[in-house]
Amino acid sequence: MKVIKLIAELNAAIGKxxxxxxxxxxxxxxxxxxxxxxxxxxxxxxxxxxxVSERMKKYWANRRRQQRLKRP
Length: 72
Hints:
Layout lengths: L1 H27 L17 H25 L2
């Protein structure tokens, strides 16, 4: 199956070229024309942070309550 091997090699070469082009675009500052890769977490606003805080307080209170009920 030489054709399958050739296709795999070509796909690997295409991937390598895409990574190289991306690096060159970032270095030259023209990466605005392409969609930037987003990494990491999104930032939360104060209101969203407060909602998460309240939700987690309820969650942990419920966990502690369940643990107390399980103890003999």
